[in-house]
Amino acid sequence: MSYQDLTDPKPKKAFMLCNEAVARAVLESDAKVTAFYPGSPTSEILDTLYLLSADYPDLKMEISSNEKVALETVAGASMAGVRSFTSMKSVGLNVASDTFYTLGYTGVNGGCVLLVADDPHAHSSQSEQDGRFFAPTGHVPMLEPSTPQEAYEMARYAFDLSERHKILTVIRTTTRVNHQYAPVEVGEVKRTPFQKRNWRDVKRPYFTLSETARRLKGEALEKLMKIEAEFDSSPFNKIVNGEGRIGVITSGVSYLHTMDAADALSVKPHILKLGTTHPLPKKLIVDFITKLDTVLIVEELLPYLEQSIKAIAKDADCGLKILGKESGHLGYVGEYNVAVVSKALSSVYGVNSPIDYEAVLAKAVELKSVIPKRLPVFCAGCPHRGTLWALQQAIKGTDYVLNNDIGCYSMLQLEPYNLTDMMICMGAGQGISSGMQHVVNDRVIALIGDSTLFHAGLPALVNAVHNGHNYTLFILDNSVTAMTGQQPNPGSDFGPNKVTEIDIEAVVKGIGVKNVTKIDAFDPKPNVETMKKAISQEGVNVVISVGPCALWNDRKKRAAKITIIPNKVGKETCKSIYACVRDFYCPAIQLDMETRQTAIQTDICNGCMVCAKLCPVSAISSTGGA
Question: What is the pLDDT of residue 626?
Answer without folding.
Answer: 42
